[in-house]
C-alpha cells in the first residue's frame, strides 16, 4: 500500500504580470505600446479630442496672431506672427491637460482599469500607454498648428536643426502636461470639476506668461510671477531656437537670462512630481 503525497493548495489570485518571450523589459514595452494603440484606435473612431486640442490654439493663432497683428508692436522689430507662434504652440500641451484627466477619470469610473488588472500586464503600462497616445495626439496637433502658422506668416530663422530642437522642447512640454493630466484625473475624479480646472490651467498659465506679450508689458507686480512661470521659459527657449526672440528678455531676471536651464529644471521637477502623484493616486483609486 503506497501513500500519495499531495501539495497543499493555496487560494487562487489574479494573474500577475508575466514577462514575454523577450524578457520583462520587452514584455513591459509590448504592453505599453499595445495600450497606446488601443487609445489611438478609440481616438480614430471618435476624434473629438484631437479636434479640441488642435482647434483651441488655431483659433487663438487666427484671432490674435493674424487678425490683430497690425495692432501689436513688439520691441526689437520682430513680426508679431513670429513672436506669438511659440506662445500659440505651447497651448497644445496646456489644452491637452483637461482631456487627458477626463479620459483617466472615465476609465477609473467605468471599471476599465479593473479589467486591465485582471490581465497579466505590467501595472505602469496602463499609464504609460495613455501618455504615449496623448503625446502622439500632441504631435499631430503641433504639426497642424505649425502649418497654419506658416500660412499666416510665421518663419523660423535659425536653420533646420535649431527649428527641430524647438519642436523637441515643445514635445517634452506636451509629455509633461500629459502626466499633469493623469495627476488631475486620479486625484479629482469629478468630470465637471476636471473640466473647470483644465480651463483654468490653460488660461492662467498662458496669460500669466510671455506667450502673447513681453513680460515687460505686464503690470509690475505680475512680472516676477510671469518670469518664473514654466510656460515663459519654454516659450523663450523656443523663440531663441527659432530666431523669433525680440531681444528684450535679457532685461529680466535669471529665467530671462537662462531660459534653457530653467526649462530643463522646471519640466524635470514637474514630471517627477506628476508621475509620483499620478501613480500614487492611480493605485489608491483602485488601479493596481
From TrEMBL:
Listed transmembrane segments: 50-68, 83-106, 127-152, 164-184, 196-215, 261-279
GO CC, alphabetical: ATP-binding cassette (ABC) transporter complex
Keyword list, A-Z: Antibiotic resistance, Cell membrane, Membrane, Transmembrane, Transmembrane helix, Transport
Family annotation (InterPro entries): ABC2_TM, ABC2_TM_bact-type, ABC_2_transport, Nod_factor_ABC_transporter
GO biological process: response to antibiotic
Topology with respect to the bilayer: Multi-pass membrane protein
Bias-annotated ranges (Low complexity): 1-19
Domain ABC transmembrane type-2 intervals: 48-285
UniProt region (Disordered), positions on chain: 1-23
Intracellular or extracellular location(s): Cell membrane; Membrane
Any one GO MF annotation of this record: ABC-type transporter activity
Protein family: Belongs to the ABC-2 integral membrane protein family.
Designated name of the protein: Transport permease protein
Originating species: Streptomyces corchorusii
High-level lineage: Bacteria, Bacillati, Actinomycetota, Actinomycetes, Kitasatosporales
Amino acid at each position: 500500500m503506497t501513500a500519495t503525497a499531495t501539495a497543499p493548495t493555496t487560494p487562487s489570485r489574479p494573474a500577475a504580470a508575466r514577462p514575454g518571450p523577450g524578457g520583462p523589459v520587452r514584455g513591459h514595452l509590448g504592453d505599453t505600446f499595445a495600450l497606446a494603440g488601443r487609445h489611438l484606435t478609440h481616438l480614430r473612431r471618435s476624434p473629438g479630442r484631437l479636434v479640441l486640442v488642435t482647434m483651441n490654439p488655431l483659433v487663438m493663432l487666427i484671432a490674435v496672431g493674424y487678425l490683430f497683428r497690425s495692432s501689436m508692436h513688439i520691441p526689437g522689430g520682430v513680426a508679431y506672427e513670429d513672436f506669438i507662434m511659440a506662445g500659440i504652440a505651447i497651448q497644445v500641451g496646456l489644452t491637452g491637460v483637461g482631456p487627458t484627466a477626463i479620459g483617466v477619470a472615465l476609465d477609473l469610473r467605468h471599471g476599465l482599469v479593473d479589467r486591465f488588472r485582471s490581465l497579466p500586464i505590467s501595472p505602469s503600462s496602463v499609464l504609460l500607454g495613455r501618455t504615449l497616445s496623448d503625446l502622439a495626439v500632441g504631435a499631430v496637433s503641433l504639426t497642424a498648428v505649425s502649418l497654419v502658422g506658416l500660412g499666416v506668416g510665421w518663419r523660423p530663422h535659425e536653420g533646420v536643426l535649431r527649428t527641430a530642437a524647438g519642436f523637441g522642447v515643445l514635445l517634452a512640454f506636451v509629455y509633461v502636461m500629459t502626466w499633469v493630466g493623469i495627476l488631475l484625473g486620479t486625484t479629482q475624479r469629478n468630470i465637471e470639476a476636471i473640466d473647470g480646472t483644465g480651463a483654468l490651467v490653460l488660461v492662467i498659465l498662458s496669460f500669466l506668461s510671455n506667450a502673447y506679450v513681453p513680460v515687460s508689458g505686464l503690470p509690475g507686480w505680475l512680472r516676477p510671477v510671469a518670469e518664473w512661470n514654466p510656460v515663459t521659459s519654454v516659450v523663450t527657449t523656443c523663440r531663441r531656437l527659432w530666431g523669433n526672440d525680440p531681444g528684450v528678455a535679457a532685461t529680466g531676471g535669471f529665467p530671462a537670462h537662462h531660459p534653457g536651464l530653467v526649462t530643463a529644471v522646471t519640466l524635470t521637477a514637474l514630471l517627477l512630481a506628476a508621475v509620483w502623484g499620478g501613480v500614487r493616486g492611480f493605485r489608491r483609486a483602485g488601479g493596481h
